[in-house]
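Structure, all two chains, one model.
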Amino acid sequence: MKRKTSSLVLTLLVSFFVLFWGSHVLAAEKPIIIGAPLSMAYLYGWSAERGMKLAVEEINAAGGVAVGKEKRPFQVEVIDTRDLEPGVPVSEALMAVERLILNKNADFIVGGPNRSEAALAAMALLSKNKKVSIVTSGVLSPAYHKTVEKEYDKYKYCFRIHGEAGNLIGEMIANFADLKEQYGFTKVFIIAQDVSHARGAAEIMGKVAAGKGFEVTGTEIFPTGASDFSMALIKAKETGSQIINIWMDMPESAILLKQWFDMKIPALPFGSTLAAAEQPGFWKGTGGKGEFTLCNVVNAGNAPSDATEWTMKFYDAYTKKWGIEPEGLGASSSYMAVYALKEAVEKAGTLDSDKIVTALEQLDMKGVYGKLKFDPKTHQVIPSTDPKEGAVGSILQWQDGKRVVVYPKSIAKGKILLPPWMVKK
Amino acid sequence: MDILVYGTINSVSLALMGLGFAMVYGISRVPNFAHGALYIICGFVTWTLFQKVGLPYVLSIFLALCVNGLLGMFMYRFILIRVRGMNISEIICSYAIGLAILEGLRWGGFRGMTNTLPVFMEGSFMLGGVPVDYHRLFMVIIGLLLLAGLWVFTHYTRLGLALQGMAQDEQAALMIGIDSDFMAMLAMGFGAILAGVAAILILPLGNIVVESGYNVLIMSIAVCIVGGLGSWMGAFFAAFIIGFAQILTVVFIGSHFQMVVALMAIILTLILKPSGLFGRQKELEERV
């Protein structure tokens, strides 16, 4: 008995020292710094940070990243760019990126800047410093990947791992077509925020919807920080619109949705980057007035679904770590960006930017929202409606206090419902 | 009809935002650039007491308004009193306090888009064919009652008359025994409470976001400059001018020019009549 106890104690001691020594050696390795320029007061900032930190924790716990023969841990350095806040100039975000590169010695830039204008301006800085960057949250402007395509040699360090406005429009148009077939909806009213991606998306949406046989009854562009939308909603009602397409990431979008409910506007609110409605707390925050709001959360994993076997694993791990479900755009894509970087670094066997670019261009992995592959010319993640083929999006609708994924059909958990004042009796 | 209904609602909401700022300036001549921060802090204190502590909503509001009033008086008694009369220092000092409050709230984790206060009355009704919710109607009624109440207070109570005396001529008020510093401190307290009342009435329409404190400050300044610095009635009329101008801009020009209206109003007022519509300050200099 005594011998057994002593051998057990000895085994425990040896394991403890091995583990301690092992982790010490790992900790002693120079970490790979992931610089994250994010607008931290906004959902697209903090959800990205949380997604990234979860992935880093998992990877480090599993031994870190194999760079050639050595194993190195990841480390995240966040700087608040504040670029999603009204009135904050783009230069603030550029300074944050520069500080991450020069002061924090970031090996990679992941996450933002979140505002398209700032991300586009940062491209030159990334190119000058030859820093590989993966945009994971907020930047939806098609100009981002088009710029890479146009001047590949200069901007080849820039990648985007989530959907862009073009994909989002395609996904929404597919839903509009369903609504047309099911309920005869033909009139769309567009409300957008006065920022690059939203203005651009509203313009493209207007053209695409018209081309698909929808009547665009009006387009209203509101400045960031606007807090009254009554006139636009009245216009939507007076023009007989049946769908209100919203492009707005500012917090005041909650006012718009509450006004829509209070005024009983007979048009279905269908938003994209509708940050307020993406979050799990939206239901409580609106006292249930957000019911029936549809919202494109850009990638699967930001709302519950079974896109891949990894989706709910990520969803549950995020919920466990942060005490809240993945809240919207930025969570799953930032998480996957870290894993994509790990794959690329291990394949390249070095942190050399040009070799990492090549490795990312050759990336082919299964992730939380489907197959992850970058278009080698544009560095945009390849989208699909089937998770086996590419990165799938996710459109949810608030139904009875829950975020129910209604699109794409391959991962849908329910169907689109109409508010009672729109149901014809 | 829709322009009339929502123009009025928008105007009253602007008047509520600006009333506290106008009152503080009118009495103490201190431009309180922490006004937006006081607005937001009242929202968060109410939210915390109601949602986190679990106190009844009315009690939460009452306590939050008390906290706001005390905070306003504290700001004056311990900070602003030292720079009183030095205009630039007053602006820098009060703005710094506002900045510290707003950034402190951000740092303290008050972020996100889902923190909100409940409306006083659920539901909506049709007013001349225009759908309006009860809370907005309630906001308009309370806004108008508040203005009437302020008028009665400043014309028929000893304290109100003393405050008005201060607003008219501080040195004369001192000569008849009115403690000007005490009155200025009270004015800061009342101004903070008015900012809090605006928050309690307006925030349930949307959500409590730290950044909107800056917007409230800009709108308050616009209302007060157009109305005439120091004039409460001027602020009220200016709120109606800007409020209707904003709605007309959305209807006839374009919604993305909505925010420009307030800033244009400031510029035009400063060019055409720097003392504002009802402002007595600098009016004599202008005439000369």
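Chain B has a mean pLDDT of 86.
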